[in-house]
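I am writing to request your help with a piece of structural work I have in hand. Thank you for your consideration; the sequence and its tokens are set out here:
=====
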Amino acid sequence: MAALSSPFTLRDVTFKNRIAVSPMSQYRAINGYANNWHLVHLGRFAMGGAALVYAEATAVEADGRRTHGDLGLWEDEQIEGLRQITKFISDEGAVPGIQLSHAGRKASERRPWHGETPVDEEDITLRGEAPWQPIAPSPITYADDWPDPTVMTEADIERVIHAFGEAARRAKEAGFKIIEVYAAHGFLVHQFLSPISNLRRDKWGGTAENRQRFAIEVARSIRKHWPEELPLAFRLSATDWLDGGIEVEDTAQIANALKAEGVDLIDCSSGGIAGRDRPRRMEIRQGFQVPFAAKVKEAADIPTMAVGFLWDAKICEGIIENGEADMIALARELLDDPNWPLHAATELQSNDNHEKWHNEFGWWLMKRDRLLKKLGIR
């Protein structure tokens, strides 16, 4: 069996292979509510053979959305629309996961195809969508021409921590089997972790230990509502790619602290804290973030997920086989080919009889292959 096709277990949840669908925001929710777009979007990945299917970044409070189109789990009524999605994913043999998030100073943004800039009066006129006030640990804007965030008070901090816990309760009721906290790419938890964005001098900032406090309290809040038998993951930006920011050694320390709070896996991404421009230190190439997953896995002795610019099945196989990470996550590659996990299995194991495909697909494809072989066409 190929390493990529081998099962992997966290707590009481077993993934049939090492392939995860990375959270990908669709910006199609209405007031945070899921709809048929999300069902089809996520369901096709389960049909395509992925072991773990993550729903997109899902806001724990309405003002924590990045855009008006983000999913939400800040009220009980949002559970039902997600429940039919998790049931379909589970019925197709995959594990349904959800990424809980708060955008912090990145909130009140336009959808990418509307400019990926702050919501303003034009959006009210064109789309009936009004801006709202973002919050952050410190009074630092996300980028030029972005609104100044409101500095979070102690009450704000406690409210958001509580909101993560309540969202975890709703995620359980909706049928999800793993939660990932979005603590990367400049979202609120990352804003507390990074010295680039957190200039506080109270117990929530200053020292590395204090900057980790918010993430730790979020993990504790979630664990109060999330069953012991179900895993909890964090997506971290392993490096800010900026002098004076987070480095991978810091991330290993953060991971170790989170492990003590019941976190089971670290999804190792990078960047996103300093606006929309790519930092000069970041050199993008296939698998460029894999070394972060390997370093964190070794230094913190915790399972990791590698993500970012991965598309070659043999490279992904090597990552798992060499122990650099325990799972790999794909995003845009799966948008292009939702059946990538099945094609990868064929490439790595010479599985040419479609035995891993659902019968509803495999039967037709086997019949096609027999005919093509008989005709000598392929």
In short: The chain has two domains: 3-338, 349-378.
